[in-house]
Amino acid sequence: MEGFQKIRLDRLFYEVKERVPAAELELLTPSTVYGVIPQSKLKSKPQQALRDDYEVTPANCDDFIISMSSFRHGLEYCGISGGISPDYVVLRSFIGKELIQFLKYSLKSLFLIENLTLYRTGIRQGQRLQWNKVRYIKIPIPSIQYAKMITPFLDQEIKRIDKLIEKKHQLIKLLEEKIKSEINEAFDGISKTIRLKNLAKVQLSNVDKHLFDNEIPVTACHYTDVYYNDIITDQTELRKGSVSPLEKEKFSLYGGEVIITKDSESPEDIAIPAYVKSCKENTVCGYHLSIIRALKNVADGGYIFWVLQTKKIRDYFYISAQGVTRFGLPLNKISGCLIPHVEDLEEQKRISEKLFKIRNNQIEVSEKIQSSIKKLKELRTSLINEAVTGQLDIEKWQNRNNTDQNLEKINKTMTA
């Protein structure tokens, strides 16, 4: 790190301990995604019961914030003025503007994060960083000349990488929209309808998550297993549970069933389906879920799985959801649902198999894109870390060969 000096954080910053009434300032929140932003711009507003005497720490432009997740993501740069909750630490610098812009990258670098991790206290969600400990961390500080040269370069290269990452995220969204379109098109031409209860047996499971020594040990498929997996197989990791003999008889899974979420805090999350392609012996359906068992020689479970994802059926379940703070679907609304009906069982299977094939292709492409996003993020992290620790080959990067070649290589991998 020639030309760099290792300087303690408390030689660069001091903690702002001033407190002012919250009503005097716009409330700000540190976000690992958006940086420090007004709470009013957050999609999900933090729940706060502000007392009349509630006070906040005044933050200025060019301050840095130690948040509860800084040991994972580094310190957050504050580009606006406002009030920060006293749960966070506001740091104000002793140094000039040129180095502040450099520190926007340095304080989010892998080098700093690895050091911050050593000073975290607490466990699980209670982990946090205390200024009186992290203040002793030494970070590499360059000359003003280097900072002035490298910061615009990082701005430019990081912007290019982030733009490409965003394009790839948009491509994944387009793929998701495409399969939704394919699902709707598969059933749009079917004019005949039938109630679900005439094609399948619907059951509301009441198997909870408790384990009792006097019950039968089983593997249980619970709410999150269905919500996050559209296909359940014998390779899906499920929790252990226990059931009574009657519960095992009623709620056992064998393969071919469709499971849907029957209640949630949001009506959008009602009737999210998962298809049980296969499962281990002694697997049962858990609580907050409904089992839909296709009647033998009448309906195909895969067909039902796909038809429940059409816009028309999704809208029906959304409207049918009952509740205020928590929404649920009664049994009669599920079993009474009118769905497009094809009498020929083999035709049902053909439609189902076609959609599974489209889904598998979409997953394969999405995984390639996700892999390329991961490589771009690794490139981004590596670039920042090398730049802020003085390990970057300036001439090589200034010629833009490294960045362009890496981006081109990642792009080719994604489209191969």
SSE layout and pairings?
Elements lengths: L4 E4 L4 E3 L4 E2 L5 E5 L3 E4 L16 E5 L3 E4 L3 H4 L2 E3 L3 E3 L4 E5 L3 H10 L3 H8 L13 H4 L3 E4 L2 H45 L4 E3 L4 E5 L11 E6 L1 H6 L2 E2 L6 E5 L1 H7 E2 L4 E4 L1 E2 L8 E4 L6 E3 L3 E6 L6 H7 L3 H10 L1 E2 L3 E2 L2 H5 L2 E3 L4 H44 L5 H5 L2 H15 L1
Report the major sheet.
5 strands, mixed
The share of residues in helices is: 40-55%
Roughly what is the average pLDDT, rounded to an integer?
89
What class do helices, strands and sheet pairing give?
Answer: alpha+beta
What does this entry look like structurally?
- Strand 23 and strand 24 (327-328) form a beta hairpin.
- The relative contact order is 0.11.
- The chain has a five-stranded mixed beta sheet with strand order 3-6-9-4-5, with no helix packed on it.
- It contains 13 helices and 25 strands.
- With 416 residues, it is α+β, with helices and mostly antiparallel strands.
- 41% of the residues lie in helices and 22% in strands.
- The mean pLDDT is 89.
